[in-house]
Design a protein that fits this description.
The structure holds two protein chains of two kinds.
Chain A: E1 3-4, E2 8-13, H1 17-28, E3 33-37, E4 51-53, H2 57-66, H3 71-78, E5 79-85, E6 95-100, H4 102-115, E7 119-123, E8 125-132, E9 135-143, E10 147-158, E11 167-170, E12 173-176, H5 188-194, E13 199-206, E14 209-211, E15 221-223, E16 246-250, H6 253-261, H7 284-290, E17 298-303, E18 310-314, H8 322-329, E19 340-342, E20 345-352, E21 369-371, H9 381-399, H10 413-424, H11 448-459, H12 464-486, E22 488-489, H13 493-501, E23 511-512, H14 513-518, H15 524-531, H16 539-550, H17 552-570, H18 587-596, H19 601-606, H20 612-628
Parallel strand pairs in A: 1-10, 2-3, 2-10, 3-7, 10-21
Antiparallel strand pairs in A: 4-6, 5-6, 8-9, 9-10, 11-12, 11-20, 13-20, 14-18, 14-19, 15-16, 16-17, 17-18, 22-23
Helix pairs in contact in A: 1-9, 2-9, 2-11, 3-4, 6-8, 12-16, 13-15
Chain B: E1 12-15, E2 22-30, H1 34-41, E3 42-44, E4 55-62, E5 68-70, E6 73-77, E7 88-95, H2 97-109, E8 113-114, H3 119-126, H4 132-143, H5 150-154, H6 159-184, H7 197-217, E9 225-229, H8 236-247, E10 262-268, E11 271-277, H9 288-302, E12 306-312, H10 321-326, E13 329-333, E14 349-350, H11 359-376, H12 384-405, H13 410-423, H14 433-443
Parallel strand pairs in B: 1-8, 9-11, 9-12, 12-13, 13-14
Antiparallel strand pairs in B: 1-2, 2-7, 3-4, 4-5, 4-6, 6-7, 10-11
Helix pairs in contact in B: 6-7, 6-13, 6-14, 7-12, 12-13
The chains are: A alpha+beta, B alpha/beta.
Chain lengths: 631, 448
């Protein structure tokens, strides 16, 4: 018998990193939220590496934080090593990363979920979507004890991760499930297909876990974190746990020989796995086969938790049989007598072709259905969290009849990711890289709050003390900017002496502080030594002032480009436009445009293979149309 | 293109043939109302009505009062099967000023309007009959003065150019892949930037190759150049005047040239060339103005098709080995002077601008070289738009090369690289970031 539960505003399917952000954001916007998960004790589980951030990903975490999300704070409270990457490079592409205590990470996030007003957690497996008249009405769930039930909701956010029709591979062994020891979710993807959606099949993998005391650590190189560690969050958080090092070692010719000799046992090479894996995160067997000239590959030994003795060997994800895994890992330095806590495996799963979504992550074919995270064909906790938040916010706004949150490519990495997924679709699991972002000199980690927190405040995602903190920081930065711009420094004897003392080149004419700070060798600390001016006690304010001044010329250039694209974005392409009627488009371009259905010229420009000439042709065709059929 | 041209509802007319009077003059009428208007002013010999079909009819144009203005041949084109893609009528009239004037008045009375310059082509473009590139190409066809250049202008889209641009584009993708690897995968490849210089040099080489070739024949649209160069007082200007005095067929001074490079048109081997006199080249320029002139001379030399080195036969200073290498022809001037001596073991052409000695020999040699140069240039060419975009890209690439050697941080380099990618958009398919990633993931082992 069906048991109909009470109706909620929003139902979130899945309690991973996307689901958590979706539920929290929707609840903060005042919606009642039911989060359905197969196992509530696995909420916010780190299925793969125990870390948050990285190049391109740190930017996403900062943006989640700026929008009032939880990932950055949670990473701060539970991080056991923090590191800024790309510090030797320019600051625009600096990214934060931390090792997390995986157990603490999940535990704290579960606490936040329970504490959030408006969020209810329901343990059940979702069997199907209830769709009526092209609109989602709720879910059909199954619970081992309660049996089948129907859950009604105003809108549904699907964040099922890698669990839809998931199959795990370890050598010849194949088992159903989306994560070690957990079942898969069947039925949901059938339900999506019957609602008219295209499904893709992807693959990802994870390495074996090793036992800490079976490793001879003296043979590995210690990799300490930054001292002092720096937080992700712009807002209230603390780095609370003791900091520990990671260790580095390399594979060698023995490792590669073992792997090569056992390739026929890998389901990747026997043709058993058909799902598409990420090229930027290849399994160790892929690395050995595709890059035979590389004599070694690095392996980072990362602690999973302060309270467990499991080690995550980053760099050797694999689906070879467990015995082979043990054999090749034993060729690594320090690992002669290693014991595996658990073998690595590959997982194949269903995801949606994300080009079926609109720019608010609502499924075009099913009203009220929003999706986020790995179901949209991405990989990574940070990508998932950012999408979850975005989908959760938009589901809530939709239920409330408010206009959707749109994030542009020129203002955020999230905007880049959403636009990439929606306009280009995917050919492999999507991961963020700074190169995906056209404006990475102006879209940086340090200014994520300046870019996005005003939107969060307007929506109601950021409140109380955090609001105050943001406004304060903004004020300090603005006054710092105008001081640097308007203050001129004369090359007096005292100034010149200070320059010599600090080993800096001198100057001859009165120069603005801004111009001085633009020079690569001069920092804000030098400005302070020269003038006594202290921009702020907050090092983050100083950092932003310094970075944006250094990049000033380039940022101006990018602003021009942003303005140009904004103009193109205003040129709307009518939904009913038949691209075959546009003269001068090749058949291939017509096909691609027909598939993607860009809604503006700027979007059309990003569909791959669309040439500037094709864009001109569309613009001309539209202009001509305006004239022939005046309104 | 002015905004008014977007108005495509008007039916427009224009004289399509040359200056009146002429044997035949062609008046074209294009637009939605072309057949309607023609039907009102034209009656066929057979008395049949003017139907909206493709054809050729003989008949008479009559004024409002019914008087015959002319007896033309009428060609009818039904859109989209016409140059503009619209309904088009072509009146092949007798080429009298009076006939064409009266016809124009008559068309205006029936609310057709005189086309603005370029409006027919613009409509063809709007209607998908011409692509932008074809438009540019068409413009250059009109500029061609030499039959030999026509095939090259028409074959612009041919394989050879496409292939060399493709190669350039591929090198550019490689370059971008390395620059982006240096930013996004610095942990895996901390020294990626050091690999950038090789593809960068290849792109620069390809790019300047295309431009040099374009300059050499100037797209067939303008004249290739013969440049006289050499030390100051070598006798270049005298030789320049002597050659022009004796051989110029059509002379018109070119006011667009700079004060330090003087050019005149001259006909060699049945085609026009530009003969250019440059400032004397020497290692230590005397004044700033002179050094500016020398820079111009060098630029002129770089774009030259034929280089004539003029050496003073009365002077002991030997020309630099580099100028000897660059020269297509060597002239030893002032052969009438007492102290004249050939220091080149009998090589070079002795000449005197004053007596005219050796000028015919020089002329014969020039003819041979000019013929060879034009025959060589059988490769298809870039359009002028493409060439100018490539020139900007080249400057950007060279700036990038100096940035790379100055160890500028990679995110700046990557930005510059991307700009180069945008700049070749006019010439090649835009480079997508996916193509860059494809290369990164196949060439670099990424992933911890």
């Amino acid at each position: 018998m069906f048991h109909v539960e009470q109706r909620t505003d929003i139902i979130v399917i899945g309690g991973g990193h996307a689901g958590c952000e979706a539920a929290l954001a929707a609840a903060k916007l005042g919606c009642s939220v039911a989060l359905v998960t197969m196992r509530s004790d696995k909420i916010a589980e780190m299925s793969c590496n125990p870390s948050i951030g990285g190049v391109g990903k740190g930017q996403l975490v900062k943006e989640i934080d700026a929008l009032g999300g939880e990932m950055g704070r949670n990473a701060d409270w539970t991080g056991i090593q923090f590191k800024r990457l790309n510090t030797r490079k320019g600051s625009a592409v600096q990214s934060s990363r931390c090792q997390s205590d995986k157990a603490e990470y999940a535990r704290r996030m579960q606490g936040v979920m329970l504490a959030q007003k408006g969020v209810t957690i329901i343990e059940a497996e979702v069997k199907a979507l209830v769709v009526e008249g092209g609109r989602v009405r709720g879910l059909e769930c199954f619970h081992a004890e309660k049996g089948r039930s129907i859950l009604m909701g105003g809108s549904v956010v699907l964040t099922a991760g890698t669990f839809m029709r998931a199959v795990m591979h370890c050598g010849a062994r194949e088992s159903e499930g989306g994560r070690y020891g957990e079942p898969s979710s069947n039925g949901l993807s059938d339900s999506l297909v019957s609602s008219g959606m295209r499904i893709l099949r992807l693959k990802t993998g994870t390495p074996a876990r090793l036992l800490k005391d079976s490793i001879n650590w003296a043979e590995l190189m210690e990799q300490p974190g930054d001292n002092p560690p720096r937080r992700f969050s712009f807002y209230r958080s603390e780095i609370a746990l003791p900091q520990v090092p990671c260790f580095l070692g390399y594979t060698n010719s023995d490792t590669h020989r073992v792997i090569r000799d056992s390739l026929h046992l890998s389901p990747l090479y026997s043709g058993k796995i058909s799902g598409i894996g990420p090229r930027y995160c290849p399994s160790i067997e892929d690395k050995v086969v595709k890059f035979p000239d590389k004599e070694q590959h690095h392996v980072f030994f990362e602690p999973e938790s302060l309270s467990s003795d499991w080690i995550y060997p980053n760099g050797i994800s694999t689906s070879l049989p467990a015995e082979v895994q043990e054999e090749f890992i034993r060729t690594l330095p320090g690992c002669r007598d290693v014991r595996m806590a658990r073998p690595g495996y590959a997982v194949e799963y269903d995801c949606l072709d994300p080009s079926q979504l609109d720019h608010s992550f609502q499924v075009k074919a099913v009203e009220g259905l929003f999706t986020g995270g790995q179901v949209n064909g991405t990989s990574g906790y940070e990508e998932a969290g950012a999408q979850g938040l975005f989908a959760g916010v938009n589901a809530a706004l939709w239920v409330q009849g408010r206009p959707p949150l749109r994030l542009d490519r020129s203002e955020s990495y999230i905007g880049v990711m959403v636009d990439d997924l929606v306009t280009k679709g995917i050919t492999e699991p999507y991961r963020m890289f700074t190169s995906r972002c056209e404006y990475r000199l102006s879209i940086r980690e340090d200014n994520a709050d300046l870019r996005l927190s005003p939107k969060a405040m307007e929506l109601g995602l950021l409140c109380g003390a955090d609001r105050e903190r943001f406004l304060n920081r903004k004020r300090e930065i603005e006054s710092g900017r105008s001081y640097l711009r308007s203050t001129r420094l004369k090359p007096t004897e005292r100034v010149l002496n200070t320059l010599v003392e600090r080993g800096l080149p001198s100057f001859t004419e009165a120069t603005s502080l801004q111009t001085l700070l633009k020079r690569p060798e001069i920092g804000l600390d030098d400005i302070e030594a020269l003038t006594g001016y202290q921009a702020s006690e907050d090092p983050n304010v100083c950092e932003t002032l310094e970075i944006e001044t250094k990049y000033l010329g380039y940022i101006a250039m990018q602003s021009d480009e942003i303005a140009r694209l904004a103009r193109l974005a205003k040129l709307l392409i009518p939904v009913q436009l038949d691209f075959t009627q546009v003269p001068g488009l090749s058949r291939e371009i017509v096909e691609r445009l027909g598939q993607r259905r860009p809604s503006t010229i700027a979007e059309a420009a990003r569909v791959s293979g669309v040439t500037p000439a094709a864009l001109t042709a569309i613009v001309v065709h539209l202009k001509k149309g305006e004239h022939v059929h005046p309104q | 293109m002015s905004r008014e041209l977007v108005d495509t509802r008007d039916t427009i007319y224009s004289l399509a043939s040359g200056t009146l009077p002429s044997a035949i003059a062609v008046m074209r009428l294009s637009g939605m109302r072309a057949f309607e208007i023609a039907g009102k002013i034209f009656s066929s010999e057979s008395g049949a009505e003017l139907l909206r079909v493709r054809g050729m009819i003989y008949g008479a144009i009559r004024s409002k009062g019914g008087e015959v203005i002319d007896r033309p041949l009428l060609l009818t084109f039904v859109g989209p099967h016409s140059f503009t893609g619209e309904d088009t009528i072509e009146f092949q009239c007798h080429g009298s000023v009076a006939v064409i004037g009266a016809l124009a008045d008559l068309l205006s009375v029936h609310s057709a309007r005189q086309a603005r310059p370029g409006e027919f082509s613009y409509r063809a473009f709007l209607n998908g009959k011409l692509t932008t590139q074809e438009l540019v190409g068409l413009g250059e066809v009109y500029k061609v003065r030499e039959g030999r250049d026509l095939p090259r202008v028409w074959s612009r889209e041919s394989d050879l150019v496409v292939r060399s641009i493709d190669r350039l584009r591929n090198h550019l993708i490689t370059l971008q892949a390395i620059l982006d690897t240096a930013v996004d995968f610095s942990e895996e490849y901390p020294a990626a930037i050091s690999q950038a210089i090789e593809p960068l040099n290849l792109v620069i080489h390809d790019c300047s190759d295309l431009i040099t070739h374009y300059d050499k024949v100037l797209g067939g649209a303008a004249c290739p150049r013969i440049v006289l160069f050499g030390r100051p007082n070598a006798g270049k200007s005298s030789l320049f005047n002597a050659l022009l005095g004796r051989y110029r067929a059509i002379v018109h001074s070119d006011p667009g040239t700079t004060r330090d490079v003087i050019e005149h048109e001259i006909w060699v081997e049945k085609r026009p060339w530009m003969l250019a006199d440059t400032a004397g080249l020497r290692e230590i320029p005397g004044s700033e103005a002179e050094s500016e002139g020398i820079e111009l001379a060098k630029a002129s030399l770089a774009g030259a098709s034929v280089r004539v080195l003029v050496v003073d036969g009365t002077c002991e200073d030997a020309p630099t080995p580099q100028s000897l290498r660059e020269a297509d022809l060597l002239v030893i001037s002032k052969s009438d002077a007492e102290r004249w001596k050939n220091r080149f073991h009998g090589q070079g052409i002795p000449s005197s601008a004053r007596t005219g000695e050796g000028l015919d020999v020089l002329w014969g040699a020039l003819q041979k070289i000019c013929k060879r140069t034009t025959d060589e240039g059988t490769q298809p060419l870039l359009s002028s738009v493409q060439a100018s975009k490539l020139r900007i890209a080249l400057a950007e690439l060279e700036a990038l090369r100096s940035d790379v050697s100055n160890t500028i941080p990679p995110e700046y380099l990557s930005e510059r690289g991307r700009r180069c990618g945008f700049l070749i958009d006019a010439v090649a398919t835009p480079i997508s970031q996916e193509e860059v990633f494809d290369l990164i993931f196949s060439e670099f082992c990424i992933g911890k």
